[in-house]
Amino acid sequence: MSLETQLSSDEKVLTIHMEEKFDFGKVQDFRDAYLHVDEAVNTIVVDLANTEYMDSSALGMLLNMQKTMADKISTFKIVHCRPQVAKILKISRFDKKFDLS
Amino acid sequence: MRILVVDDESLNRFLLIHMLEEAGYTDCFEAESGREALQLSEKIKPDLVLLDVVMADMDGFETAPLLKKMAGDIYLPIIFITALDDQDSLAKCLEVGGDDFASKPFDKIILTAKIRAHARTRLLSKRASKQNEELNYFRIGVEREHAIVEHIFSNALTINKTVAAYFDYRLAPASSFNGDLFLIEPSPSGGIYFLMGDFTGHGLASAIGALPVARAFQAMANKGLSVSEMASTINKTLMTLLPGDMFFAAVIAEIASNGHQFTVWNGGMPDLTVFTPAGEVTKHFQSQHMALGILEPYEFEENVEYFDANIGDRLIGYSDGVIELTNVAEQMLGEDAVLSWLSESPDLPVADIEEKVEAFRGNAEQLDDITFVSYTCQSLEALRPEYTVTQLPFNIEVDLCVEKLKTIDPIYELVIMVCSQLGMQSIRSDLSTVLSELFNNSLDHGILHLDSTLKKTTEGFFEYFDQRTDRLAKLKEGSIQIRISFAPENKTLSVELEDSGQGFDFQNLGGNHDSDAFGRGIPLIKELCESVEYSSNGTKVTATFAV
């Protein structure tokens, strides 16, 4: 099942809504969500509001997105992390690489 | 138009009534004396009285005030009919309550003109009286509604007493309803959320928005949502509810379970300030956003500020009603004054601050709602949710053969099994992550011999997952055993995985750079667990959790 995505009305911000689990089972879906974005998009937001847990492959997927899209996208944001998920991102020092909120 | 003619001469009455009928006033009554006039007017409620002065049984001067009294608040015009023409008598007509006089013999044109003029005034008086009555009815209705709304507010906006004990705060509304709002809720992880806000204006109109905000805040706090999500959800709610000229300046903050880490979203409120016990300011959380209920969701910015204070430090926040408070000399209190009080006496209780604020205000009217909030960093140990943990020692053993490895993802179900035991819910998220890591390491490296370094490049990252799918499909033999056991004596849950593979170099799995898309698993587990131990050349691993 593909992930829910949403384009802002000015077509510059793509938001990807992750589900309850964010682990390697989402590799393909996650990649599909961002790979073919329109030229105009300059910001990708990963919304983790519904995510209850993530593992290290999810971390890898996030970094991989950043590497793949670095020349097209200027800002990568991770938003709405629950405390447990925020803890994992912090342990992994993701706050230095992503805009966390 | 009902006219009462009072005269003891029947000829006069006849002439008058005839004249009135000619002028179109057909609803006329007559009385022979003042006494009869009083009795009659009680029954017929006249709109105007033509009153003779000199009568045998109660004269006009005596009757006029009594007629007026009977008419109550509504203007009853009394026109004296008199043959007297001395100034004193005419003046007396008006003094006793008459409104006009007409001299005998009557001039028809003048008299009907006078009647019309007084009728107009009576109509106005009737209207005013009716409006008064309606206004009174309305006022009583409003009072009743206020009482109901006040009741609802006092029930809906109750503050959780357990967490309120960690705060020193005062709310002083300028009128009976408060446009300022202060809410506190415990977070599921053992910290505290609080919201301090200020609706445009004050009174009922500005207080009404507090209800949806309070409900949304409480629900989101129970779920343990992030401060930024709370801000954007409340913004969205208010955007649809509030009229365009109304908004809600607010601070939404979370205090971490350690009691001294703050996450703050500030939109349009005065700074939140952190003081050390020595009175030194170490942090201002300035407003970085517009107030809630102004920006469309796509324009809304939800970024928050973090600050790690120390135990004993004090976080102070207040509404603009404090700093914009004006004294009789029309001077504003200002932010600097408040901050200097606190720098001089860093442990000044809020009640004392309030006293200083009141002293400054003096006799000037309080124009806006005032809120003052103080939190001193302390251990929140007592707030940690008390889980009753199961007293049963239990074991869950799963033996996954090749077929199972190919077809199912065991992590989700295992987590449900464990977390359905009493008290295990608290480690749900960590257990999910750790089990997933351990299982994937065993499967990927122990059994499928995948090479993590493949993930170094972007293409390799996906190549890795392709290989994984491919090798798993072709796998002929291999198994993974998972044993999860709980020891109630020391509240320890241990997770053990053993695979049939050759083992792997668990020590060198880690990547060397922050930017490597691999090798994060084991360091992550080490942070989340009490202990992690690989043995038998990496084919066996045991991780333990404190529950």
Can you lay out the helices and strands and say which pair or pack?
The complex is a heterodimer of chains A (101) and B (547).
Chain A: E1 4-7, E2 13-17, E3 21-22, H1 27-35, E4 43-47, E5 53-54, H2 56-69, E6 75-79, H3 83-91, E7 99-100
Parallel strand pairs in A: 2-4, 3-5, 4-6, 6-7
Antiparallel strand pairs in A: 1-2
Chain B: E1 3-6, H1 10-22, E2 28-31, H2 34-44, E3 48-52, H3 60-71, E4 78-82, H4 87-95, E5 100-103, H5 108-156, H6 161-164, E6 167-172, E7 180-186, E8 192-199, H7 204-207, H8 210-223, H9 227-241, E9 248-255, E10 261-267, E11 272-275, E12 281-285, E13 305-308, E14 314-318, H10 320-323, H11 335-344, H12 350-361, E15 370-376, E16 394-400, H13 402-407, H14 410-419, H15 428-447, H16 458-474, E17 480-487, E18 492-499, H17 521-528, E19 531-535, E20 540-546
Parallel strand pairs in B: 1-2, 1-3, 3-4, 4-5
Antiparallel strand pairs in B: 6-15, 7-8, 8-9, 9-10, 10-13, 11-12, 11-14, 14-15, 16-17, 17-18, 18-20, 19-20
Secondary structure category of chain A: alpha/beta
CATH architecture of the largest domain in chain B: 4-Layer Sandwich
Task: Report the top-level CATH class of chain A.
Answer: Alpha Beta
Strand content of chain A: 15-25%
Radius of gyration of chain B: 43 Å
Share of residues in helices of chain B: 25-40%
Structural class of chain B: alpha+beta
Uncertain residue ranges of chain B:
none
Distance between the termini of chain B: 91 Å
CATH fold annotation of chain A: Transcription Regulator spoIIAA
Q: Which percent bin holds the helix content of chain A?
A: 25-40%
Radius of gyration of chain A: 12 Å
Count of folded domains of chain B: 3
Terminal Cα span of chain A:
27 Å
**Oligomeric state of the chains present here:** heterodimer
Main beta-sheet annotation of chain A: 5 strands, mixed
Shape of chain A: globular
- Spatially, the strands of the biggest sheet of chain B line up as 2-1-3-4-5
Count of beta strands of chain B:
20
Second rung of CATH, namely the architecture of chain A = 2-Layer Sandwich
User: What do the pLDDT scores of chain A average to?
Assistant: 87
